[in-house]
Amino acid sequence: MFCRKNMFSKLLSRLVKFIIPLISIISPKVSVKILYRLCFKRNLNLKNPQTLNEKIQWLKLNLYNNDPLVKICADKYTVREYIKSKGCGSILNDIYGVYNNVNEIPWDKLPDKFVLKWNFCNGFNIICQDKKLLNITKVSKQLRVWGKSNKHLLYSEFQYRIKKERKIICEQFIEPTEGHSSLEDYKIYCFNGVAEYVMVCYGRESGDPKFYYFDRNWTLMKLSVDALNISDDFCFPKPKGLDEMFYYANKISKPFPFVRADFYLQNGNVIFGELTFTPSGGFDTKRIYETDLHLGQKLILPNII
Q: What molecular functions are annotated in GO for this chain (predicted)?
């Protein structure tokens, strides 16, 4: 019985990944309503959205789908000019090159360590820590597959709808802080131009990651399952560079009702990662309902006539 259920679940998942993008082309609204129902077992409330997931759906359908600035800032390359325009160019990671396709990548001229990423959507990254061990043929094939993707259709994230301007970016590999086994990444939730909370992931390298929310004073907020189950005497040291991250998040989030500003810390130095306008596409099933509602109350949606 379990095997049959598992097979049915996999089949349903494949059908969803095939059918939902087709529906999204015709009607993004219908697409997100169907997917929301499948994910949360309840109807999507677009007339009076309450949770953060619901409000992200509203923003996707009513504002972020056609906002020129959102499109610029969702692009991992053009966002750099926006960051510079806010006087924050010093926190940008160095880039070695920008290419229109895989054939333009000068593999022999790249350093031993680097990161390759497409400028649209998330997850299309190649992290190279030793070029001698890199299978260039395999990596090139993967980059080509990603370059043809219309991943934005699955969650109707039309801020990622890029056709002619698709680029491959080669960035500097960011070494972890001394004494750390992995890179420190911080995701700051900004509501109506104000940076409120930072989400931190601990233990990712162990395969059992824990997610915690802190306010700008580094007070642990009981907003995740992991935080609810943590002992009262457990202490997370405040990271050096936290105040600077909130400062930059405030500056670059001003024009947007909601955005998540992602940063890295390296030995206390702040490095900009990206701006994420629709985390998890507005389908974050790992966030408990009370937290989703609490975060949703922080976001005041604009009136659109």
A: transferase activity
Positive or negative: CA dihedral 43, 49, 54, 59: positive
Phi (first) and psi of residue 158, to 5 degrees: -75, -5
Q: pTM for the whole thing?
A: 0.91
147, 169 contact by CB (below 8 A): no
Distance between CA atoms of residues 203 and 138, nearest Å: 29
Q: Can you give the pLDDT at residue 10?
A: 63
CA distances from 283 to 35, 41, 58 (A): 8, 12, 12
Cα 294-42-279 angle, rounded to 5 deg: 50
**Alpha-carbon distance 158 to 156, whole Å?**
6
What CA dihedral angle connects 97, 249, 221 and 181, to 10 degrees?
Answer: 30
**Strands 168-172 and 114-118, bridge-based pairing:** antiparallel
The C-alpha angle 251, 190, 27, rounded to 5 degrees, equals 115
Beta bridge partners of residue 247, listed in sequence order: none
CB 262 within 8 A of CB 274: yes
pLDDT in tens, 13-39: 777 788 999 999 999 999 999 999 999
Burial 230-244 (b: 16+ CB within 10 A, else e): eeeeeeeeebebbee
Q: Residue 172 and residue 266: Cα distance in Å, rounded? A: 13
Q: Are 163 and 154 in contact (CB under 8 A)?
A: no
The pLDDT-based confidence of 266 (bands split at 50, 70, 90) is very high
Per the CB < 8 A criterion, the answer to whether 172 and 114 are in contact is: yes
Query: pLDDT tens for residues 76-114?
Result: 999 999 999 999 999 999 999 999 999 999 999 999 999
Which fold does the domain 184-298 belong to in CATH? D-amino Acid Aminotransferase; Chain A, domain 1 (3.30.470)
